[in-house]
Amino acid sequence: MTSAIDFYFDFASPYGYFASTRIDDIATKHGRNVAWHPILLDIVYKVNGSGAPVQHPVKTEYLRHDVERTARFHGIAYKRPTHFPIPTQAAGRAVLWVQDHRGGDLAADFAKSIFHALYVDDVNIGDPAELVRLGQTLGIDGAKLDAGMHAPATKDHLKAEIDLAMARGVFGSPFVIVDGEPFWGFDRFAQVEACLQKR
Fold it and tell me: Is residue 165 within 8 Å of 39, Cβ to Cβ?
């Protein structure tokens, strides 16, 4: 049985959003499943001693242009969010709670809805109430989701995901691992497909 494709992402990453619109289709095309892993880039950057792009004005201006260009090139809906940069720990924990209590498929759908809310509908996903609202549209119990994303066990789960990600060499978003082969960035998805074709 073939192993799942590991997909690491932070909702703070617009490239992670772009990847979220393509990763499942790529996996299905090659008979794979996807394991969705939310992480927090702020922690990854801090541990690795690297800074976020928003700390570098030249990079920030380039990335703003490149994100919009990439969206146009791939035909992906995108609107620059006004709520940015934004804390994403609640969103990451919410996805993991759904994953633990309702399964990976619904968690992936929830993650996609959160990405779409931020990068298309300009929703403040840093607000737990907005996450509850998004979850309810997918049939997730709002009260349970609200309690679950704040539960110590869920916080520990996110921390464990981040620790494991860094142990596997993950340092950005999106980051994909196919049978031990790492790929960083949405612009590497053609190489991800080439790797899958050889398996």
Answer: yes
Sheet hosting strand 34-38, strand order edge to edge: 34-38, 5-9, 175-178, 181-184
Read off the tokens for 167: 């142990």
Nearest 5°: the CA angle 136, 141, 144 is: 130
Spatial distance between the Cα atoms of 24 and 7, rounded to a whole number of angstroms: 10
Q: At what angle do helices 128-137 and 89-102 cross, to 10 degrees?
A: 30
Q: What is the 3-state secondary structure (H, E, C) of the chain?
A: CCCCEEEEECCCCHHHHHHHCCHHHHHHHCCCCEEEEECCHHHHHHHHCCCCHHHCHHHHHHHHHHHHHHHHHHCCCCCCCCCCCCCCHHHHHHHHHHHHHHCHHHHHHHHHHHHHHHHCCCCCCCCHHHHHHHHHHCCCCHHHHHHHHCCHHHHHHHHHHHHHHHHCCCCCCCEEEECCEEEECHHHHHHHHHHHHCC
Tell me the per-residue pLDDT of 46-84, one tens digit each, with 9 for 90 and over: 887 665 555 566 778 889 999 999 999 999 999 999 988
Which is nearest to 5 in space by CA: 150, 179, 169? 179
pLDDT tens digits for range 82-97: 988 899 999 999 999 9
